[in-house]
Design goal:
The protein has helices at residues 2-14, 24-32, 42-55, 59-71, 76-85, 88-91, 94-100, 103-109, 123-137, 139-142, 150-162, 186-207, 210-223, 234-257. It is an all-alpha fold.
């Protein structure tokens, strides 16, 4: 009797027989893609986003692996729910952007795409095409680390070459993926930079190729402060951002002073 109780306790702790216990993040994602959900649970998706962004470390990769496995589920409702979990709130952070830009993730994302596009793509295929197009138009063009997101552009070119048509994306819908106009302090800039460098370092070490390890070694020297040539002066950078805002304010003030009765502000009148 005691042996049986011990076996069941072990099973409760480690999930199904022979399988490791699910992490809280994996359980949240499993609940979010439950086929009994007929539409995305926005509150749960936001909770998953907060959990990924707060845990950092391996959380973005852990979430990416779990989500892409559900994207390839036989039940299309599960696939659509999984795609909704990879929300814009998650991708607003650089560590999560690096995970979706890996060959491993992108190949799994389109694993069920036929060599030639079907006459009428499925809803899941259309959502995946929409996501890739959205990433190409936003983070691949405006991110400070866009050079690390090249595999997204490569996948977009490959699918286009095969004949897949990407849906049109409204830029205002994807605006959250573009850089924020909020002014950051030197400490905030440094913290953001360290998070991005840490995520990149993890990915380079995981890949483990000679060039990857060489780049990882260079990056570790920068992070440790040994390579001062490539160290960013965050206070100077913050001062530069402030001066840009002051210059825009000065131009606006000049414009307002020269504004006369009858003058009109037309669409496209902006101050760079």
């Amino acid at each position: 009797m005691e042996a049986a109780s011990a076996r069941y306790a072990t099973r409760d702790r480690f999930g199904a027989w022979g399988e490791p216990a699910m992490t809280p993040l994996q359980r949240y994602i499993q609940n979010a893609v439950d086929p009994q959900n007929f539409e995305p649970n926005l509150a749960l998706n936001l909770e998953i986003s907060d959990l990924i962004n707060s845990k950092k470390g391996n959380a973005p990769r852990e979430a990416a692996i779990a989500i892409v496995n559900y994207v390839n589920h036989r039940n299309p409702n599960v696939s659509l729910l999984a795609l909704s979990v990879r929300s814009k709130q998650v991708l607003a952070r650089m560590p999560s952007r690096l995970t979706i830009s890996t060959k491993e993730f992108l190949n799994e994302l389109v694993r069920r795409f036929p060599e030639r596009p079907p006459i009428r793509p499925s809803r899941v295929q259309m959502r995946i095409l929409e996501a890739i197009e959205e990433w190409r138009l936003t983070i691949c063009q405006t991110s400070r680390y866009k050079e690390d997101l090249g595999f997204i552009r490569d996948m977009h070119r490959l699918l286009s070459y095969k004949g897949y048509m990407f849906p049109e994306i409204r830029r205002e819908d994807a605006a959250v993926l573009n850089p924020s106009d909020n002014l950051q302090s030197a400490d905030e800039m440094e913290e953001e930079e360290k998070a991005a460098q840490s995520a990149k370092l993890q990915e380079l070490i995981r890949r483990g190729g000679p060039e990857d390890l060489q780049e990882a070694n260079r990056l570790m020297k920068v992070m440790a402060g040994y390579d001062t040539k490539h160290k960013t002066d965050y206070r100077a950078k913050a001062a530069e951002e402030v001066s840009k805002i002051q210059e825009k304010a000065r131009l606006l003030e000049e414009r307002l002073q020269n504004f006369k009765d009858g003058d009109k502000v037309e669409d496209g009148d902006v101050f760079e």
